């Protein structure tokens, strides 16, 4: 899978300025820490987002 391929994540938790995301296709992988500034408005725990390159969209 290339970096430009879509990757779906579930927001596990939001802590301060960061969200911890679980890769849906690799649930046993370490969580990804992503700055809220890169994520779409309106996310919360349990939200699903898709990343293509460094752009995240709410699913």
Question: If you had to describe this structure to a student in words, what would you say it looks like?
Answer:
This protein has 59 residues and is an all-beta fold. Helix content is 0%, strand content 47%. The chain has strands at 7-15, 18-23, 32-35, 48-52, 55-58. The chain has a 5-stranded antiparallel sheet, with no helix packed on it. Strand 2 (18-23) and strand 3 form a beta hairpin. It is globular. The protein starts with 6 loop residues before the first strand and ends with a strand. The mean pLDDT is 95.
Compact description:
By secondary structure, the chain is mainly β. It has no helices and five strands.
Blueprint of the fold:
Elements: E1 7-15, E2 18-23, E3 32-35, E4 48-52, E5 55-58
Order of helices and strands: EEEEE
- The portion of residues forming beta strands comes to over 45%
Low-pLDDT segments, ≥5 res: none
Please count the beta strands (DSSP E, at least 2 residues each).
5
What sort of overall outline do the alpha carbons produce when their principal axes are compared? Answer: globular
**How many individual helices?**
0
Rg calculated over all Cα atoms: 10 Å
